[in-house]
Specification:
Layout lengths: L33 H8 L10 H14 L12 E3 H11 L12 E2 L2 E2 L2 H10 L8 E3 L1 E5 L3 E4 L19 E5 L4 E7 L5 E5 L4 E5 L3 E4 L1 H8 L9
């Protein structure tokens, strides 16, 4: 696969200017003039624009302070099965313990059989001793789930809040793939800022060199 390189700036921060933020568009008055923003932001002399090395340093600082952020380009090529198992359990959040949660699915209380089935689908007991990291790019917008299941779990029969929904991921996002569900329908992935299970058919797999040319391109575009 040779993905079309339509990525914007890759990383946490690809340029940083200290610009004021306002909640609405100015219709008239001083805020509608360039002079207002030049004076307020002081960008006319470039003093509030970070140099590339400063951007790199602040990105590293943010990643070091936050366990939820990761540099995929520097991701290990090989992990142990135990390391991947720990990552899968961490992505479960409150469901890692093993006790059947008091939730509802399809209008009824989650049964023990349903709970054991989705836990078993994580396939963590069948992981090999050593796991080679795989590389992929999302081809569609998809859901990242806490468990490998598309079933909706709620706190009450009339609730619409899906307890298994971790977040959503946009198309064209690089991810690393560490495991597959027992039924083969989901893959456990880690993106630059989240981790969990995604529909396998929303991933395009590739080799490491091709993936790196996409995840860390020599040239990139910043779209305003």
């Amino acid at each position: 696969m040779n993905p079309i390189r339509i990525m914007g700036a890759f990383g946490l921060i690809c340029g940083l200017s200290l610009l004021p933020v306002t909640g609405g568009l100015a219709q008239a008055g001083p805020m509608s003039t360039p002079e207002y923003w030049q004076k307020t932001a002081q960008i006319h002399d470039g003093t509030n624009t970070m140099a590339p090395e400063q951007v790199r340093q602040i990105n590293e600082s943010i990643q070091q302070r936050s366990s939820s952020l990761r540099d995929l380009v520097s991701y290990p090529a090989v992990l142990t099965g135990q390391q991947v198992q720990q990552r899968v359990y961490a992505a479960m959040q409150d469901y890692w313990r093993g006790e059947r949660p008091s939730v509802y699915t399809e209008g009824h209380s989650l049964t023990n059989e349903e709970w054991m089935a989705v836990r078993d689908n994580c396939n963590v007991d069948q992981l090999p001793v050593q796991i080679n990291t795989r590389y992929a790019v999302t081809t569609q917008r998809g859901n990242i789930r806490l468990l490998p299941s598309a079933a909706v779990w709620t706190n009450s029969p009339d609730s619409s809040l899906d307890r298994l929904q971790g977040t959503a991921i946009d198309p064209a996002q690089p991810v690393v793939v560490l495991a597959d569900s027992k039924d083969g329908n989901f893959s456990y992935v880690e993106s630059s800022d989240y981790q969990g299970w995604i529909d396998r058919d929303k991933l395009a797999f590739t080799d490491n060199n091709t993936w790196l040319s996409y995840a860390k391109p020599a040239d990139f575009a910043v779209v305003t």
